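$ ./design --mode recover --in tokens.txt
reading tokens...
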């Protein structure tokens, strides 16, 4: 099995070097299409082949824990460097980068493998020049390491599908980390003073901190099993996580600190006998406590007073904790709260009460000081997945597997309103807009925005391809993030104000154009008036212009004597209007014919419709009209109504002949009577 291949960088001979699982290295002459050399020294799979800048030195490394240096010309082994770890990647640094590590000849080899660190070796002496410090509590190993000469970075690929970038010129300090796969997104929240970072819980034991600007990610190790829930303190720098390992960890976050000290586990809460599925911290620094809910059906309230110094100054948490073990937290009280798993815990503003939601189809309200129940919110037909508390009123909302969201009064614990619209379980809810609206996500992959006042769903967003487990909003509510089973985090921007501004601008622009249209009509500038009416998409105004101009032309011609010479009449009563109709763009022409189609369906407007249609047909070729996007539909709609109008006019014309005949007959009868009267008078 071939485990590695590399082209020789020289231009004289076209050679390919390949390595196999048995440790043999073969050199192939591609012009002669044959193997010219077999190099034997490795005793296990060779995973890396590279050349120095002179192309005369070849370096190979493999899972036999050695790096071999070869003379390319003689195809002989120069040196073997024992590294005492299985190597998955190795290569030669450029001379300018290697000089940073005080190599005598500037030739440095890097290696990476099962230990998950990058090590540097002097190619000439075999001496180890530098060993990278491993990330705290990290468990990854490297499956590949690539040198990026343009940026001067080493890019390491880990066995958990992450990319780590190390600066060669900065003593291999990590400058960026890209997470390749998220698993399911179970919970997330915005953190930091500027809320530019996301704390994310996935189907792993690592807490992930994403920079939303460049997607750089920090991994925090501390739990031994999957993290199920997290909550962020109002300071934005303290995060609590609950896990399947039955513990809760408190993390202090300072993204401006050195790499290994950006996320520090400062405390651990041990006491639950099953997975911790809900956690909430009191907001503010006056009351320092935390409430957790678990699959063991109990609620525990933890005392966070031992962490007061950290809560007051989270940026120095790493210094305060140092290398000591995380602080063990103690409970204030514990009680069984529900009959089934507890899915959600929320603490109300003021830190006086908290609400829990459970699979037993109820949510309960508790007193923080005594732990006594204050009320039960009953009404759901299935388990409650999430609870939320309004920031403005004594109101709570619950989301359930029965596809409903219920709004509850925290004064009398009565259901105030029910929101229905999701087609599957509602998994997460959040109050927004100062408690006037509610955001919800569900198993149907939809995000819905509800008005609290009328209970109407005003917006539905469809982007995820599976269940949406969680949503998080910034304190300013400018951005919102959602995550679910499709392993994707979507970040949404609130464009409400932008839409309002855009609508106001459009209204102002429309008013200006409307005033301009009135001015054009006042001075009888029909050419500009017709063009503007088309651009404003005002078919009624345009029809009125055509009708008025045609009527004025008829009245003017009727007032003239029959023997007065005049130029040919304009089709639409004004030559300027005819000229405008004859110079329309394809888009404007298509729109005008659409108006004509509508006018033509009403007998009162048939005359102006037919006149406009005649004006178009006399000035545009059939090819131009048929090339319009909706030509087929327009012709199909215009033809039957036009035939009906012509049939009606034909009937009127026939009727006019009868009237004409009757008038002539009456004139003939009148002349006979006159003759008879004259004859009688003569006698």
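writing sequence...
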């Amino acid at each position: 099995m071939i485990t590695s291949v590399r082209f020789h960088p020289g231009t004289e001979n076209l050679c390919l070097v390949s390595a196999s699982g048995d440790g043999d290295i073969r050199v192939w002459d591609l012009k002669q299409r044959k193997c010219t050399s077999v190099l034997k020294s490795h005793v296990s799979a060779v995973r890396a082949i590279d050349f120095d800048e002179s192309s005369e030195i070849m370096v190979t490394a493999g899972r036999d824990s050695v790096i071999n240096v070869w003379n390319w010309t003689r195809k002989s082994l120069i040196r073997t460097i024992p590294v005492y770890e299985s190597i998955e990647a190795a290569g030669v640094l450029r001379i300018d980068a290697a000089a940073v590590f005080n190599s005598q000849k500037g030739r440095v080899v890097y290696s990476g493998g099962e230990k998950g660190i990058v090590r540097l070796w002097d190619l000439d002496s075999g001496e180890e020049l530098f060993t990278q410090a491993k990330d705290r509590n990290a468990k990854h190993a490297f499956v590949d390491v690539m040198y990026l000469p343009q940026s001067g970075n080493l890019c390491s690929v880990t066995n958990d599908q992450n990319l780590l970038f190390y600066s060669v010129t900065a003593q291999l300090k990590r400058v960026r980390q890209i997470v390749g796969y998220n698993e399911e997104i179970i919970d997330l929240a915005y953190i930091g003073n500027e809320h530019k970072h996301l704390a994310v819980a996935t189907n792993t034991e690592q807490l992930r901190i994403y920079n939303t600007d460049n997607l750089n990610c920090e991994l925090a190790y501390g739990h031994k099993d999957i993290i199920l829930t997290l909550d962020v303190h109002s300071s934005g720098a303290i995060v609590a996580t609950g896990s399947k390992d039955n513990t809760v960890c408190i993390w202090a976050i300072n993204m401006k600190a050195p790499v290994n000290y950006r996320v520090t586990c400062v405390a651990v809460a041990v006491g639950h006998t099953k997975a911790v599925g809900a956690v909430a911290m009191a907001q503010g620094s006056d009351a320092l406590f935390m409430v957790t809910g678990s699959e063991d059906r109990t609620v525990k309230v933890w005392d966070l007073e031992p962490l007061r110094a950290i809560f007051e100054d989270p940026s120095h948490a790493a210094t305060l904790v140092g290398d000591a073990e995380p602080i063990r937290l103690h409970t204030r009280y514990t009680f069984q709260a529900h009959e089934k798993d507890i899915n959600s815990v929320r603490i109300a503003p003021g830190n006086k009460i908290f609400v829990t939601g459970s699979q037993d189809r109820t949510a309960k309200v508790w007193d923080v000081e005594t732990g006594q129940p204050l009320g039960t919110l009953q009404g759901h037909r299935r388990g409650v997945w999430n609870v939320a508390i309004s920031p403005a009123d004594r109101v709570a909302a619950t989301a359930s597997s029965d596809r409903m969201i219920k709004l509850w009064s925290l004064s009398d614990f009565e259901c105030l309103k029910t929101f229905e619209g999701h087609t599957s379980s509602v998994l997460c809810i959040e109050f927004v807009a100062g408690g006037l609206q509610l955001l919800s996500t569900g198993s149907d992959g939809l995000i819905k925005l509800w008005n609290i006042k009328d209970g109407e769903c005003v917006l539905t967003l469809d982007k995820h391809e599976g269940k949406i487990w969680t949503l998080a909003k910034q304190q300013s509510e400018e951005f919102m993030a959602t995550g679910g089973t499709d392993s994707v985090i979507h970040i949404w921007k609130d464009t409400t104000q932008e839409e309002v501004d855009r609508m106001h601008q459009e209204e102002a622009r429309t008013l200006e154009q409307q005033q301009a249209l009135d001015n054009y009509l006042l001075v009888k500038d029909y050419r500009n008036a017709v063009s503007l009416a088309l651009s404003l998409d005002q078919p009624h105004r345009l029809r009125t212009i055509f009708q008025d101009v045609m009527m004025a032309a008829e009245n003017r011609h009727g007032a003239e004597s029959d023997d007065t010479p005049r130029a040919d009449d304009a089709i639409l009563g004004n030559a300027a209007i005819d000229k405008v109709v004859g110079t329309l763009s394809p888009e404007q022409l298509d729109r005008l014919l659409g108006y004509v189609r509508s006018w033509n369906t009403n007998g009162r407007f048939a005359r102006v419709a037919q006149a406009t249609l005649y004006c178009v047909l006399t000035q545009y070729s059939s090819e131009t009209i048929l090339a319009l996007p909706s030509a087929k539909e327009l012709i199909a709609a215009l033809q039957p109504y036009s035939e009906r109008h012509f049939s009606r006019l034909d009937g009127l014309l026939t009727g006019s002949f009868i009237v004409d005949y009757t008038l002539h007959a009456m004139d003939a009868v009148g002349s006979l009577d006159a003759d008879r009267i004259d004859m009688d008078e003569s006698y």
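exit 0
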